[in-house]
Specification:
Elements: E1 2-8, H1 17-27, E2 35-41, E3 44-50, E4 63-64, E5 70-78, H2 81-90, H3 100-111, E6 121-129, E7 134-139, E8 148-152, E9 155-159, H4 177-186, E10 200-201, E11 206-211, E12 214-219, H5 234-252, E13 259-262, H6 267-279, E14 285-291, H7 299-309, E15 312-318, H8 320-334, H9 343-355, E16 360-362, H10 367-370, H11 375-385, H12 391-399, H13 413-422, H14 438-444, H15 456-464, H16 473-490, H17 492-500, E17 505-507, H18 513-522, H19 534-539, H20 546-550, H21 561-567, H22 578-581, H23 589-601, H24 609-629, E18 646-651, H25 652-655
Parallel strand pairs: 2-18, 13-14, 13-16, 14-15, 16-17
Antiparallel strand pairs: 1-3, 1-9, 2-3, 4-5, 5-6, 6-7, 7-11, 8-9, 8-10, 11-12
Helix pairs in contact: 2-3, 5-6, 5-18, 8-9, 8-17, 8-21, 8-24, 9-17, 11-16, 14-24, 16-17, 23-24
């Protein structure tokens, strides 16, 4: 795992280029504390901060092929690097290291862009062709690793985290009110967006080519959530899922350092921990979060699974004061407004894992999206068939729809029934599954001066996506979850970014392409979708304790707006006055102040979900504005470039190697 950054600039003075790339890397030093290096050539610079996981001794970056025509900066892990190395060796490619980075580079040289669909991994990388004077940047198919870029008149910049751009001369962050509208509506940026003007994300499954200063975006693999019906028996379906997941965990245990497991106590992480203990030659270490608030705590379930599997378990207790104290630091690493505080415990957990000496962790992310684990999918199916059901059938299904949500309990049954009836017909074309959820987003829009349709860009995205219209309502729900909340929040703000804040790499066995395909094959083939992940449970029924197989799903949650009401940190001043709120571009300070006043004065149990989300969205936006736009986040900065261990410095302008003027 690493962080990468770079630029293409014909105007930046050659004498300052080494300092600029080193400073950019310094901003993301937390991602790769082991070593750093950069490459310079003819107005092009790129570099890496490295977290050494595979081939600790000889995997330094940037890395070149023997001819020094091709150079790579690689962030991530290629899980099938052993198999690809063997195939490439048979084709005549020669290797000098054991690193997966060199496999990526040699695969690029051998197959060009065609190599991307062969990769099973979590990655974002840049390849420079010094002869053709081309730059390529690519990102994995599910968006497990981030990659941002900005195309400016004075240069093209890219980096694993946007904060690296602040080191480029003349760069300034500006919040984009248009993007805030979308983020507040769907809880996350769209796949190609960011909250800042002029900064884009490279979408999952995409490749960007820069030739003659002009970028061209290409999708190398579309997200597939559909598959032909599975033709085998239920037992064969369970075996397919079990075997595919076993292989997925096995390749993700490939590492030259110890691999741990995040254990929530639920089904998904329990399966990962079970397979890790089966496949590891040593005692497996598991890690989890406990909450002082017992309503949020799952520590009993975590200990039950850990004892059953015989793991060496460790947990960290989180209080409301911990959440409040560490919220600005977590937001600084997330780089995007968030609608809940759940990223903060993950930020603290990764620090705990790092302090325990672990660099790499397995998690259960992606299981709910792949195997229809969310109650959202049941709700979608119920609303889609609502007008064909009898009153008795409706009431039966409403009663078991959202067992994890108190506001769907028996005392709210009449209201819920009316709400589902109201949303039984599609209003936003292609977004039927999420329309109820997006009502909270419409409330949050009131924080903004611009209250035009917040879902216009998402409607355009699904309208332009080949094959989307032909998907079933449930498959559309899956597609939306993969493309929005999974990639834009769970894998990034709450996952990867919180882990790499402390140099901890996360690996997601449920997001192996073969596992996602297996799920698509068996989903709803042998059940009606009302038992959470039925085939997945059957696949591991005999090797797990009863609790994760039978207990109702408890979504991972953390203390919300009431925590800030209780502790009132200094930075709360950013949202307590209209004068401070007016400093945030696009925010309506009058409504925002009314919301804050209401939340601060309301008993915690009486703060509605939509008010809670709106408050956290507002506060995180205010913190981002302070840190990035007003550039008052110096206390968040990492060590300076001079303190980095720059193990690899290649300046082709000085070395006499091939440069742009020698072609």
């Amino acid at each position: 795992m690493c962080g990468i950054a770079g630029f293409l600039s014909s105007s930046l003075n050659a004498g300052v280029q080494p300092g600029v790339i080193a400073a950019m890397l310094s901003e993301i030093r937390h991602r790769g504390p082991d070593e750093a290096g950069y490459y310079l050539d003819d107005g092009m610079a790129m570099g890496t901060v490295r977290l050494a996981i595979v081939d600790l001794a000889s995997g330094a970056q940037p890395m070149s092929d023997p001819t020094q025509r091709y150079w790579i900066c690689f962030n991530g892990e290629l899980y099938n690097h052993i198999e690809l190395r063997e195939e490439l060796s048979r084709l005549g490619r020669q290797f000098r290291t054991r690193s997966d980075t060199e496999v990526v580079l040699q695969a690029w040289i051998q197959w060009g862009q065609g190599c991307l669909s062969r990769f099973n991994g979590a990655f974002a990388f840049a390849v420079r062709d010094a002869v053709a004077d081309e730059l390529f940047i690519a990102r994995d198919r599910y968006g497990k690793r981030p990659l941002f870029y900005t195309d400016r008149p004075d240069g093209f910049l890219f980096a694993s985290e946007m904060k690296a751009f602040r080191a480029y001369p003349g760069f300034r962050f500006e919040l984009d009110p248009h993007e805030l509208k979308s983020i507040f509506g769907i809880w996350t940026p769209l796949p190609d967006r960011s909250p800042f003007k002029g900064i884009s994300q490279l979408p999952p499954g995409s490749l960007l080519t820069i030739r003659a200063g002009r970028p061209t975006l290409h999708t190398y693999e579309e997200l597939a959530v559909d598959a032909p019906p599975f033709s085998g028996t239920p037992a064969e379906a369970a075996a397919l899922v079990r075997d595919t997941l076993r292989t997925s965990v096995e390749v993700r245990l490939r590492s030259d350092v110890e691999v741990g497991v995040y254990l929530s106590g639920g089904l998904d992480s329990s399966i990962v921990a079970r397979l890790a203990t089966d496949l590891s030659s040593h005692e497996v270490r598991t890690f989890s979060v406990e909450f002082e608030d017992r309503a949020l705590d799952e520590s009993s379930s975590q200990r039950t699974v850990a004892r059953y599997l015989g793991t060496r378990h460790s947990s960290i207790a989180i209080s409301t004061s911990d959440v409040v104290e560490n919220f600005p630091a977590a937001v600084h690493h997330a780089e995007v407004p968030v609608f809940r505080t759940a990223l903060v415990p993950m930020y603290l957990l990764s620090r705990h894992v790092r302090d325990a000496g672990i660099k790499t962790i397995l998690s259960g992310e992606g299981a709910d999206e792949a195997f229809l684990g969310y109650s959202l999918f049941r709700e979608t199916m119920l609303r889609a068939e609502w007008n064909r059901l009898s009153a008795e059938e409706r009431q039966h299904k409403v009663a078991v729809l959202h067992p994890e949500l108190a506001h769907f309990g028996p005392e709210h049954r009449v209201h819920v029934t009316g709400l589902l009836s109201q949303f039984s017909e599609e209003r936003l074309e292609g977004l039927f599954s999420h329309e109820l959820r997006y009502q909270n987003g419409r409330f949050v829009q009131r924080l903004l001066k611009d209250r035009a349709e917040p879902f216009a860009d998402l409607l355009a995205l699904v309208g332009d996506t080949p094959g989307y219209a032909a998907l079933s309502p449930t498959q559309k729900a899956q597609w939306l979850e993969f493309k929005t909340l999974l990639a834009g929040y769970l894998l990034s703000s709450q996952g990867e970014r919180m882990g790499l804040a402390h140099g901890v790499e996360n690996r997601c066995p449920f997001l192996d392409p073969a596992v996602v395909r297996a799920a698509a094959l068996v989903n709803l083939r042998f059940d009606d979708g009302w038992e959470e992940k039925a085939v997945l449970k059957e696949a591991f029924r005999d090797v797990l304790p009863e609790e994760p197989l039978t207990r109702r799903k408890q979504p991972y949650r953390a203390p919300g707006s009431a925590a800030f009401q209780e502790h009132r940190p200094d930075y709360l001043e950013l949202v307590l006055s209209e004068r401070e709120l007016a400093k945030i571009d696009g925010i309506d300070p009058v409504f925002a102040k009314r919301l804050v006043d209401k939340v601060m004065a309301t008993e915690a149990a009486q703060i509605s979900t939509k008010e809670d989300h709106a408050f956290v969205h507002l506060l995180s936006t205010a913190v981002l504005n302070q840190q990035f736009v007003m550039d008052r986040g110096d206390h968040m900065r990492t060590s300076q470039a001079a303190e980095m261990n720059l193990t690899t410095v290649i300046d082709r302008r000085q070395s006499g190697l091939l440069t742009g003027g020698q072609r």
